[in-house]
Structures are given as structure tokens and as C-alpha cells.
Structure to design on (1216 residues):
């Protein structure tokens, strides 16, 4: 006769730490922790020993010293008398600007190309396939270098825009002309119009003054926050536009309620349009918005904002490169939606436009968004390739000139990696939140 | 395939070569190879040729040091360094000697703790403009767009110069010399500024060299020289006196062709001491008697090196200028070998 | 009786020709190019774009010069042959410097070594990439790293052999220890034994063997590596070395042990959160601070280590995807069979997960291979920027811009395009396996 009995209670033995699965994971974790701490202390120890051997210190005090170098593109005030810290801050803003502009262009282009690749038009779909394959199979560094070379080699010189009296007499046009009459693409950079505000001043005087470099913005002026200046005009505009959006949302909600109740949707698009645009327009008119169009004076264009080619080349190349990946993501996302979905929508009597909006896109987005996040992250990290065209981004200032001039490689590198890591984590957190919002709620 | 990760660590262990002793000189002798930090590519000063052999003005000094210390000018390993990595490589003993047209400045000497043992090229920062810009002086460059290499001392000099003269400028940052030349030629900047030697080298290779002028103002002093680590004076002495041997050789008319002959026939006691036929200067340095003779025999004396790499016979066509011997109105001057 | 002749067609008439607009090229064009007004506009725009590109590029390519000693000579030939305003490509540079783009500064009389290593690499990769080949070839794949190391870097043949023996020691110890001690502890003991072998036995044994039977190749320093040789060495080493590391990290990330999991997640997120270029600068600027004073090794090796860590984080995520794609039932089935964790991983989970992950691994490799160009920023001679800088420093080729980029870019395109096609083929094949 056999009895089923409980396993005999064993007393704890040291060997059980290894052999008994109940304790083994604990053992492993303790060993891993000890090894990890040993490794860390080994690193720290080495660092201290090395710093001593080199007679260096580890402190961030140098960040407050005078930087002494100039940065050709900056979003907030900076001169060569500013500190290294501020130079790093300028670099960070430049990195973020390149990432933001790059992501926007890449998304628009990528969606466009991804959709066109599925087009029934033989030529266009082949063309887009070639685009995608060529761009994603060549290092992005090459695209950046090529973009920079093409921009500065093929764009006209500022003097080519000039129309001299002799040329007018001969009936010749200048060799180059401005894009849409407002944007000048020269081989030194792209000059775009700059908004200025002429509130309470005479138009002519205001215009002449705003051609001077560094002239104030006008209008409501700016408030100095110490770190950077905030334009009150921009704040006012944002406030008014935010209000418009709020009102518009209420309008849409009302329309929805009416539709629920009566089954008829009131026509509101022109009301929406008016609510969204008119108040902002009025505000801009009151402030006296005045676009300063670049003018050729002397050897260069004056007025307007000069966008350095290093920036244009970097963002354009990154956007074109990333667009190829985004196009593939978009194509895969659309193809992932089975035909049955659109057939079902058609059976329900939805028009093609609404089928796209209500059935295909929400489902496709669910497939598209996660890989899109990682493409945005990649693009942001790739902005560090600014080194190839000497665009002064975070690596160019903090990890480049500052590091080189002060010789504080440990401090600069750690700070820079920390900042990049923070940016990446913030982007992925934000996008994950968005991802969670668009995800279909599964049962 | 998987296991090659361990191969990596292993070869890492195998390559943990730098169990350095007290002095670089002993290290170099023990290793049998001189690690010389050089430029990735700067025309005339240091760049590999089609066969992968490094050639240039700075390179010749490395070879001379290798010949003096190791007896063989080919026992040099050239480590290409960028503007960012050069000082770290020297500080971390990755290279024994940095000859990469680096400027001798207070902070590099005192704060970064390097010794510039001599100045092998006296340079200064200049401006190049196109003739049709109608500018004849750097003081007329107010409002100009300036092409400038990032991460160099020239960047700081430029800021200082424009500030001192109360002028403004727009910098166009470029990554390296060839990029700067391209931007300038394309007209992306009104003027290109870098060391005058670099400007001359660039101008020499331009198809329309006559349409470009180098402005008379030299806005900074750029003493370029071989750098070693602070605190290793024995090694510093070796590099310094190898360089001075090249200068002295030019002064005494000792060159690559006649060195053997001079060594046997000369009656000048200083030349005798230099070439090791008299005295024991080599032993004081921790080298043998013929060290200087070997160094000079590699590519000749200072003048010969200059002429062969960047002088008037080369496409770069640099004049000796400040780098002429002190006897000919220049600054190159070797202390006595005694 | 009426004469009744039924009308029965005894032969069919040939179908009529379709209208001219519905046949041949015209029909194809109507269906594929001009099916709607919008499509017609797109076609015209596309055609114009192609035309514009061709107008720009074709004359330039037509005016190619292959025989010249310098850029100015090239320009002179172009001006002489096609008129003073003509522009043209100067491929003479490629003709003179192609070997530097391919091998860097590798000694010219030793070119057969990288060539042989490359061919052997293809052989070694074949069983990994094509699952239908005999599994015995994997043995060669496993020994390939040692052969390649010896071929490329040279030196005595005994060094890699004794290193490989160390792995043998590790496997032996592991085999005997793991049944008693469990897989993790067994692996640890095996690693310790191998480390002891490498540290204590390695040097004396290989020296002794070498003095007994001197068999070796000329040594080549790693600073002589450059061009595509460097890119391939860094890419292949990093990706293959990162595979085991990536598998461990992926398992760690899925582990129930909190500490192991958080360390894995922390490592992966850190590496994925910073740009590769900062890691390369770490290799060149910071590693000297983190290692014991006075240690110093090769920048290429430092770069390979950092790139390996970088690749491992990405591979870990790819494999995690593969693990997640396995149905839960597989894990439960393994449990039901009474397999322990490592047995289940080895026999059931990993073979399937890895198979699913191969396309992802290949695309990681493509990405990594393209990213090897970034090593130029720490002074290494990559084909795109490093070698090009060297070429441009030559006074003969100063001022050459388009040709080097196009040349290097075209080769990158061929390699990466080929690999991505392979990956797509594999993906299709794996898909049918699973349906």
C-alpha cells in the first residue's frame, strides 16, 4: 500500500541556495547585485585614480566661465561673452529645433510617400519604391554631407540676385530670384521673412528700423526671464488662439448633441473656420504685424531670419532619410488592415472619406504609432550627426568646442549623455502616452 | 560566430600593452615603436599618400625622433587624431608625441598639462578673400561672413579680433580645411580664416589662385609645435633636442647628402658634438652617440624638410618667413650643442 | 416535309481585335498611368522629376574621365574633350585610390588575407542565413572568428588556437558542472575556468607551441585597417558578439527576478537613449578614465566593444519581440514536459524565437553597418569620410567632392540593398512556415 504524503520537511542547508529553485533566484540576485556593485566601485575607483594621476579635478565650475566662441545660429540671446553653460543651452535648443523640424517634415513626407507607394499609378509607385530603397540603404551621414554640398554648391550667391541698371537696360533678369518673392536661398543660408510688430508706430519708420540687425520685435515687447526672453506678442497670440480652439470645441460638441437628438448634423464648418481664424487675425492686425522680407543691401541680404545651411542640410537629410522608413511603416500599417474592414464600412453605407477617417485610419494608426515613435527617437539621436556639417547642436557646443577648449572631457561627456538620455526618455514617455490613447480598447 | 565576443575581450587582454613604467623614453624603447599623434589629413603637414605612407612636414619630425630613439625611421605608428580627440589621446598615453599643428597656448600648457617642447612652425591666423570683394585690410571686414573651423584656437582669435575692432561678423562653421576651402570657393563666405600656412596651401591648389588674396593682417600668433605630457622631462628633452638637431644641421650646412662626409671631415667642434664624433651628448639624453646623425639622415635638416613638404618647390609654395633661421631674419634658433 | 436546315455554327469566329485604345502599350498606359485625372497629373509630375534628374546627372556621367593623375588634369581633359563649360566626373581618383577605399592601409602584398577572410565569412554565414544547408557547417561557422582573426591580424597561428581551446575548456567544465550546479552557476564556473586558462596558460602555451612549430603570418596592426574592410570588421564582429549578449539581455528583461530585470532594462534603455556618436566619443575620450590607470589598448578594439554594447541593446529588443511573438502555449508545453528554465529555453523557446527574429537581426545589422561610418569622427578611416579626407589631403585630389561620396555610397547601397532583399525573402519564407 502506498500513501501520498507530504514531502518530508527538510531543514535548511547551505546547498539549497544553489540546488533549490525556491532559493536559487534569491541567490542569483544577490550575486548579481554584489557583482554589479563591485563593478561600479571598480569604475569609480579607476576614475578617481585616473583623475589623480592626471592631476585633474572633477567639477562643473568651468561651465560658468566665459565661452569665448560664437555660434552662428541661436534661438535665444548669446554672445561670445556668455558662459559655457549658456552655450550648451543654445546647443540643446538647436538640437531640439532640428529634431522638431526634422520629425515634422519626415512625417509629412513619409505619409505622402507611403500612400503614393500603394498608388495604382505604375510610374509613381515605382518612383516611390526607388526613393525608399535608395534612401534607407545608404548611410545617413552620406545624405547629410551630400545635402550640405549640394546646398552650398548649387545655390546662387547673394550678388546674383542683384539687378544692375545695365542689366535692366539690356532687358536681362538677375541670375537668381527669390522663392515666391519672399525667401532667398543663397549659398550662405536661406533668408526667410521675419515677423515684426509695429503697434503704435509709423509704418515707414518701423520698416526701415526693422531692417537693422538686432532690432526689437516691437508690439507688446518682450519680458526677460533671465535665461531667455519671452515674446509677449507670441504669448498673446497663443492665448487668443487657445481661446478660439476652446470655443470651437464647444461648437463641435453642440453640433454633435444636435446630431444625436435630431439625426441631422448642422453645417458648422464655416463657423469653425471663422472662430479659429478671425480673432487671431484681428489681434495680429492690432499689433501691426509686418513681415520683414529680406532685401539685398551691400554684399548680403538684410532683414529676415538667416537659416544656416548647416541646419537646412542636417534637417533635410535626416527628414528625407527618416521619411523612407516612415513611408514603409505607413504602407505596412495600411496594408495590415484587411479588405473586409473597408467592405464592411461600404456595406454600412459609409462614404469613402468617412471610411478612411472612421474605419481604416484608427486601426492603421494603432499599427503605425509604435514604430513611428522609434523613428522619431532615431531622428532625434541622429541630430548628433550635426558634427558632419558643423551645425552647433548640443554635441557641437557642449561636447565639441567647450570640451575642446576646456579639456574637461569627463564632465562634458557625462552631462551631454545625460541630456540626450533625458530627451529620449521624455519623447518615448510622451509618445507612449499618446500610443495608449489611440490603442483600440481590447476586451 | 557567437563566441567572438570573448575573442574581443581576449585580444583586449592581449593588447593591454601600456604597463608603462616611469618614463616615455623607456616605454618607446621597450615597445620598439613610436606612437605619433598626427593629422587625419592636412595637405603638406601630415596625410597618408596613395600607398598609405604618412608624408608631410609634421610627419618628418616624428620620423626623425623615431630614428634618433629607435634607430629606424620606419618604426613610427601614426595615430590619426581629430581636433576633439588629440589632447585626450596624448593625456592618456595613447600617443607618445603629438605633432598635429597644435598651437602652444597658456591654458594648454598649464591647465591641460602638456609641454610644447619647441616651435617647429611659426604660424599666424590670416584671412583670404576674393579679389573682387575689394577689401585690402582685415579691418574692412565689418559685417562679413567668415568661414571658420570649429574647435580650434582660430575660432577664439576671430571672436577676439572682431570684438577688439568693434566689428560684427557671421561665422560659417566648417568641419575641416577641405570643407572650408569648398565653402569659400562656392562663395558661402566672404572670407576664409585659418592659419596662414593653411591659407597659402589652399590658395596654391585653387585653379584661379590670382583671384584670391591673403590679407596682410596676421591676427594671432600660432606657434605650432610637438607636444608631450607634462612632467616627463627626459622624453621632452629627447624630442626637443632632436628638433634642435635638425635646426642646427641647417645652420651648419649639414644635409642629407653630405652628412656622412661632414661627419668624417669636419673640424668644427660643435658639428662634431652634434654628429657624435666627439663628446657624449647622446648618452646624456639616454641615447647612443649617433642619434642626431640618424635623425638628420632621415629626411635631411629643417630646411630640407621644409622645402620638400611645404616649400617653394612644392605646390603649396610657402615662404620661409618667420621660419627662416635666425641668421636669415627668421625665428628658428637652436641653442648651442654643448 | 420542309427543308429544314438548322443553323449550327460549325466553327467559331475569331474574336475581334480590341479597339486600339484597349490593347498593348496604350491600354497598359491607360490603366496604369492615366486612369484618372489625378493619376495623370501624378504621372506627368513623376515623369518631369525623372527627366530633371536625368538632365542633371547623365551629362556629368557621360563626361567621365578614368585616366588622369590629378583633379586638374581631369578638368583639363574634360575641358578639352567636351568644351570649356562641360562638367564631368573624375573617376580617375577611384581608379588610383580604390584599394584604400577597400582595404585602408592594409599592406598591399597581403591583400589576399582580407579577401580570403571575406570569402570564408560568406561560407561561415551561409548556414546561419540559409536554414536548408547542412547543420554540420555550423562547426565551421563557430571556428570562423578564430580563423578570421588570424588571417586579418596575423601573428602566430597558435594564439587563436589556444584561445579556442579555452572555449573548449569552458564547454567541458560547463558540461560536467551544470547537471550538478545548474546552468547559471555551471556557466559561471566554466567562465572562471576559461578565464584561468586564458590568463595563466594562454601566453606560455602559445609561445611554447610557436617555438616548437613556428607557423604564422606577418602581423598587421589594427591601425592599418580602413575603408570597407574596417566597416565590415566592426559590423560583423559587433553584430555576432552582440548576439549572445542580446539574448541574455532579452531573457533578463523578461525575467521574474526584479534586480536582473531592472539592470537589463536600465542597460537597454541607456544605450538606446544616447546617440551612437556619444558612445564612440566615450570609447575615444572616456574609457581611459574608467579603466585602471596605465591600461591602454587599441582604439579600434575600444570602438568595437562600445559598438557591440550598442548593438546588443538593439538585438535584445529584436529578440524580445521574437519571444513575445511565441504563443504562450509553447512555454506551457515546455513546463508540462517537465523541462527546467534553461532546457526549455534551449530546446523549445530560443530555436523558435531566434528564427522569428532573424529578419530583425538582419535589419539591425544593416543599420549597424551603415552606422560604422560614424567611426570617422574618432579618427578611424571609414570609407565615407575618413578615407575621403585622406584622399582630399593629397594635393592632386584636393577639391574633389562628389565622386568619393557617390563611389562609397553606391557600394553601401549594393551591400545594404542586397541584405534587405534577403531579409524580405526570409520574412516571406518564415511567414508561410507559420500559417
Amino acid at each position: 500500500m502506498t500513501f501520498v504524503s507530504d514531502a518530508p520537511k527538510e531543514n535548511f542547508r547551505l546547498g539549497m541556495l544553489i540546488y533549490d529553485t525556491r532559493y536559487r533566484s534569491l541567490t542569483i540576485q544577490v550575486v548579481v547585485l554584489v557583482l554589479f556593485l563591485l563593478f561600479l566601485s571598480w569604475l569609480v575607483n579607476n576614475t578617481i585614480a585616473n583623475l589623480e594621476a592626471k592631476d585633474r579635478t572633477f567639477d562643473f565650475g568651468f561651465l560658468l566661465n566665459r565661452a569665448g566662441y560664437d555660434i552662428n545660429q541661436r534661438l535665444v540671446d548669446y554672445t561670445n561673452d556668455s558662459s559655457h553653460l549658456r552655450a550648451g543651452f543654445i546647443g540643446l535648443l538647436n538640437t531640439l529645433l532640428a529634431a522638431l523640424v526634422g520629425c515634422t517634415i519626415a512625417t509629412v513626407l513619409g505619409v505622402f510617400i507611403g500612400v503614393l507607394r500603394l498608388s495604382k499609378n505604375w510610374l509613381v509607385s515605382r518612383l516611390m519604391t526607388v526613393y525608399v530603397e535608395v534612401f534607407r540603404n545608404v548611410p545617413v551621414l552620406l545624405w547629410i554631407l551630400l545635402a550640405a554640398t549640394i546646398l552650398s554648391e548649387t545655390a546662387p550667391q547673394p550678388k546674383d540676385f542683384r539687378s544692375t541698371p545695365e542689366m535692366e537696360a539690356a532687358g536681362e533678369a538677375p541670375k537668381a530670384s527669390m522663392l515666391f518673392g519672399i525667401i532667398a536661398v543663397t549659398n550662405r543660408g536661406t533668408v526667410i521673412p521675419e515677423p515684426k510688430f509695429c503697434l503704435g508706430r509709423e509704418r515707414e519708420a518701423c520698416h526701415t528700423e526693422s531692417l537693422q540687425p538686432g532690432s526689437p520685435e516691437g508690439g507688446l515687447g518682450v519680458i526677460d526671464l533671465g535665461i531667455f526672453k519671452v515674446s509677449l506678442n507670441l504669448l498673446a497670440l497663443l492665448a487668443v488662439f487657445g481661446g478660439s480652439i476652446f470655443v470651437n470645441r464647444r461648437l463641435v460638441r453642440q453640433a454633435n448633441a444636435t446630431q444625436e437628438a435630431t439625426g441631422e448634423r448642422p453645417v458648422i464648418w464655416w463657423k469653425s473656420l471663422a472662430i479659429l481664424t478671425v480673432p487671431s487675425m484681428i489681434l495680429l492686425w492690432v499689433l501691426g504685424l509686418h513681415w520683414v522680407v529680406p532685401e539685398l543691401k551691400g554684399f548680403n541680404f538684410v532683414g529676415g531670419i538667416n537659416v544656416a545651411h548647416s541646419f537646412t542640410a542636417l534637417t533635410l537629410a535626416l527628414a528625407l532619410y527618416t521619411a523612407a522608413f516612415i513611408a514603409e511603416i505607413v504602407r505596412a500599417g495600411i496594408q495590415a488592415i484587411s479588405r473586409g474592414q473597408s467592405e464592411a464600412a461600404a456595406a454600412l453605407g459609409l462614404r469613402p472619406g468617412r471610411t478612411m477617417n472612421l474605419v481604416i485610419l484608427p486601426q492603421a494608426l494603432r499599427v503605425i504609432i509604435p514604430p513611428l515613435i522609434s523613428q522619431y527617437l532615431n531622428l532625434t539621436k541622429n541630430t548628433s550627426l550635426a558634427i558632419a556639417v558643423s551645425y552647433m547642436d548640443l554635441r557641437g557646443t557642449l561636447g565639441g568646442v567647450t570640451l575642446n577648449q576646456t579639456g574637461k572631457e569627463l564632465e562634458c561627456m557625462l552631462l551631454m549623455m545625460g541630456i540626450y538620455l533625458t530627451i529620449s526618455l521624455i519623447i518615448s514617455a510622451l509618445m507612449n502616452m499618446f500610443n495608449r490613447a489611440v490603442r483600440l480598447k481590447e476586451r | 560566430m557567437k563566441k567572438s565576443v570573448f575573442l574581443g575581450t581576449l585580444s583586449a587582454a592581449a593588447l593591454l600593452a601600456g604597463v608603462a613604467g616611469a618614463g616615455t623614453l623607456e616605454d618607446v624603447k621597450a615597445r620598439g615603436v613610436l606612437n605619433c599623434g598626427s593629422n587625419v589629413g592636412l595637405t603638406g603637414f601630415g596625410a597618408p599618400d596613395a600607398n598609405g605612407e604618412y608624408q608631410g612636414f609634421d610627419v618628418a619630425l616624428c620620423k626623425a625622433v623615431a630614428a634618433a630613439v629607435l634607430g629606424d625611421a620606419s618604426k613610427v605608428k601614426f595615430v590619426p587624431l581629430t581636433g576633439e580627440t588629440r589632447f585626450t589621446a596624448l593625456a592618456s598615453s595613447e600617443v607618445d608625441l603629438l605633432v598635429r599643428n597644435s598651437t602652444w597656448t597658456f591654458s594648454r600648457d598649464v591647465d591641460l598639462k602638456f609641454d610644447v617642447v619647441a616651435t617647429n612652425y611659426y604660424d599666424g591666423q590670416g584671412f583670404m578673400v576674393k579679389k573682387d570683394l575689394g577689401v585690402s585690410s582685415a579691418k574692412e571686414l565689418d559685417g562679413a561672413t567668415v568661414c571658420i573651423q570649429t574647435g580650434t584656437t582660430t575660432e577664439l582669435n576671430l571672436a577676439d579680433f572682431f570684438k577688439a575692432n568693434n566689428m560684427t561678423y557671421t561665422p560659417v562653421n566648417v568641419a575641416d580645411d577641405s570643407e572650408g576651402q569648398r565653402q569659400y570657393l562656392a562663395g558661402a563666405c566672404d572670407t576664409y580664416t585659418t592659419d596662414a600656412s593653411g591659407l597659402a596651401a589652399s590658395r596654391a591648389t585653387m585653379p584661379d589662385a590670382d583671384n584670391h588674396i591673403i590679407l596682410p593682417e596676421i591676427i594671432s600668433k600660432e606657434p605650432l609645435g610637438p607636444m608631450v605630457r607634462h612632467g616627463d622631462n627626459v622624453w621632452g628633452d629627447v624630442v626637443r633636442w632632436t628638433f634642435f638637431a635638425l635646426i642646427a644641421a641647417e645652420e651648419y650646412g649639414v644635409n642629407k647628402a653630405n652628412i656622412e662626409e661632414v661627419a668624417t671631415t669636419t673640424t668644427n667642434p660643435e658639428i662634431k658634438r652634434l654628429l657624435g664624433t666627439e663628446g657624449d651628448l647622446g648618452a646624456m639624453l639616454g641615447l647612443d652617440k649617433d642619434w642626431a646623425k640618424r635623425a638628420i639622415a632621415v629626411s635631411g635638416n629643417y630646411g630640407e624638410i621644409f622645402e620638400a613638404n611645404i616649400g617653394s618647390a612644392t605646390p603649396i609654395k610657402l615662404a620661409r618667413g618667420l621660419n627662416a633661421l635666425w641668421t636669415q631674419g627668421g625665428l628658428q634658433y637652436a641653442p648651442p650643442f654643448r | 416535309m420542309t427543308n429544314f436546315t438548322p443553323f449550327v455554327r460549325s466553327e467559331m469566329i475569331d474574336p475581334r481585335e480590341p479597339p486600339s485604345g484597349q490593347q498593348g502599350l496604350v491600354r497598359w498606359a491607360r490603366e496604369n498611368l492615366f486612369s484618372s485625372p489625378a493619376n495623370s497629373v501624378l504621372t506627368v509630375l513623376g515623369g518631369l522629376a525623372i527627366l530633371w534628374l536625368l538632365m542633371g546627372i547623365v551629362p556629368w556621367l557621360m563626361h567621365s574621365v578614368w585616366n588622369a593623375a590629378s583633379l586638374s588634369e581631369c578638368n583639363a581633359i574634360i575641358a578639352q574633350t567636351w568644351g570649356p563649360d562641360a562638367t564631368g566626373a573624375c573617376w580617375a581618383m577611384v581608379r588610383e585610390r580604390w584599394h584604400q577605399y577597400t582595404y585602408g592601409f592594409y599592406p598591399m602584398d597581403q591583400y589576399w588575407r582580407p579577401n580570403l577572410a571575406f570569402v570564408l565569412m560568406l561560407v561561415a554565414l551561409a548556414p546561419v542565413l540559409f536554414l536548408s544547408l547542412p547543420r554540420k557547417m555550423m562547426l565551421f561557422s563557430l571556428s570562423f572568428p578564430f580563423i578570421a582573426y588570424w588571417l586579418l591580424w596575423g601573428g602566430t597561428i597558435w594564439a587563436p588556437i589556444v584561445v579556442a581551446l579555452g572555449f573548449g575548456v569552458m564547454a567541458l567544465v560547463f558540461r560536467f558542472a551544470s547537471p550538478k550546479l545548474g546552468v547559471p552557476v555551471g556557466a559561471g564556473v566554466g567562465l572562471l575556468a576559461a578565464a584561468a586558462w586564458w590568463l595563466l596558460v594562454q601566453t606560455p602555451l602559445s609561445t611554447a607551441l610557436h617555438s616548437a612549430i613556428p607557423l604564422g603570418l606577418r602581423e598587421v596592426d589594427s591601425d592599418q585597417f580602413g575603408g570597407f574592410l574596417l566597416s565590415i570588421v566592426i559590423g560583423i564582429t559587433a553584430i555576432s558578439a552582440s548576439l549572445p549578449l542580446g539574448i541574455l539581455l532579452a531573457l533578463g528583461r523578461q525575467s521574474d527576478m526584479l534586480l536582473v530585470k531592472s539592470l537589463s532594462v536600465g542597460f537597454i534603455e541607456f544605450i538606446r537613449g544616447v546617440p551612437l556618436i556619444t558612445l564612440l566619443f566615450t570609447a575615444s575620450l572616456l574609457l581611459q578614465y574608467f579603466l585602471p590607470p596605465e591600461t591602454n589598448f587599441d582604439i579600434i578594439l575600444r570602438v568595437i566593444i562600445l559598438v557591440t554594447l550598442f548593438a546588443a541593446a538593439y538585438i535584445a529588443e529584436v529578440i524580445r519581440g521574437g519571444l513575445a511573438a511565441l504563443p504562450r502555449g509553447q512555454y506551457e508545453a515546455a513546463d508540462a514536459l517537465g523541462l527546467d528554465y534553461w532546457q526549455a529555453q534551449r530546446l523549445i523557446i530560443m530555436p523558435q524565437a531566434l528564427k522569428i527574429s532573424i529578419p530583425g537581426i538582419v535589419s539591425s545589422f544593416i543599420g549597424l553597418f551603415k552606422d560604422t561610418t560614424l567611426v570617422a569622427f574618432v579618427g578611424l578611416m571609414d570609407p565615407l569620410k575618413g578615407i575621403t579626407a585622406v584622399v582630399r589631403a593629397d594635393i592632386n585630389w584636393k577639391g574633389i567632392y562628389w565622386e568619393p561620396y557617390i563611389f562609397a555610397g553606391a557600394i553601401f547601397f549594393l551591400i545594404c540593398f542586397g541584405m534587405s532583399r534577403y531579409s524580405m525573402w526570409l520574412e516571406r519564407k518564415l511567414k508561410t512556415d507559420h500559417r
Observations:
- The domain at 19-122+224-328 of chain B is CATH 3.40.190.10 (D-Maltodextrin-Binding Protein; domain 2).
